[in-house]
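It is time I had a proper look at our fold encoding. Can you supply me with one protein entry, sequence and fold together? It will help me judge whether the discrete encoding reads sensibly. Leave the record below and I will have a look:
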Amino acid sequence: MGESVYWYKDKTPPGEPLRGTTTSDVVVVGGGMAGLTCAQALAASGVDVTVIERDFCGAGASGRSSGFITPDSELSLSDLVDKLGDKRGQSLWEFAKSGLERIRATIAAHAIDCDYHVQDSLFIARSARAYRKVVEREHQVHTSLGYHTTLYDRASIQAVVRSPGYFGGVRYGGTFGINSYRYCHALRNALARQGVRIFERTPAIRFSHDGVETPHGAAAARTIAVFTDSNLPALGLAAPAVHGVQATLSISQPLGEDEIRSIFPESNLMVWDTDLIYQYFRITGEKRMLIGAGDVGSLYLQSAAGSRRRIVRKQRRYLARHFPSLKLAFEHTWSGIIGVSKDFAPVVGRQEALRNVYFAGAAAGLPWAAALGEYVARKITDGRDELDELFSPDRSFVVGRRLQRAVGKAAGFALSHASEKL
């Protein structure tokens, strides 16, 4: 099965690569959600910015995303609180929410046409045990910290998701879905109109105190900010702390209104379940079913070519089990590699040998990526540092560097993630 990224049907040819030398205050490496948001925040502060992107803006994880704009990612609010305590856990939840609101404000400010649709989030239980241990706990933590949620048990959940296979769920609002590639492309164009120099098809080859060397020139700057997510290690940054995990997304043919209401009787929702390697789905603005999934055999591989067909079969079985009357034909299927840390929290740091090089990654969610971009921009302009300890690539992990070297990086991340989730 070949790859066909649905969002790229609107893709335009990449911009020109950098040839010769350009000079600015800051060069941002990476044209995804984090890099573009960093450039946006810097430019708003009067900083002269250049962005370089090795392919085209939105070519990586950001543009291949499911477009779920929710603060929940690999780390739910209850995960954050249970790990860090109420105060610090809530501070990270609010950090992710700030990224969500940054995306929403940018869409409004630039009138971005990116299939923006307000949809509540629904975290749904696939077993009675998951409902008691995970979903009810999530509702309890939200309520205790002053956030409004709605808890559904097995009987009431069918009022919002018409499937007998779920055991309950917790729902909250303020979230939305987008076409993530279209958002990145539109933000790229808005920044260019504001005077930010953007060069696509321009990979970074080497960093120095003077800027970034590229294949056909150089981006001279006193400060470098790198947002290449799972590719940070390839540039010599955060190598032990960041690895790529992959998920496969499929999107259906347009559905009729009766078909959509057979899934969501009340209103469309963004849904993910309690499985360890979870499934997630939503209805796009074009009335298509978008579903994402992965499996243990492919999660830590860096190529999806051999596993895509298997995961699509898993997606079909999942939908057939939960919505047996729904007959779907997938029109596009693609995979994406997302950078993660061993405890799922982001990574932010500075290169030891070149202190002018800042980097951030492992956001595991578009709102987190947007918040990271703004965080690094404020580090550069104002010295922001209140989350540095939590985001340090040198923080303590359950699986340390010595064990990771012994078992291999993929196995080390798998062991660490299992310890975090189980």
Notes: The chain has a mean pLDDT of 94. Residues 86-109 form the longest helix (24 residues). The first strand starts at residue 20 and ends at 23.
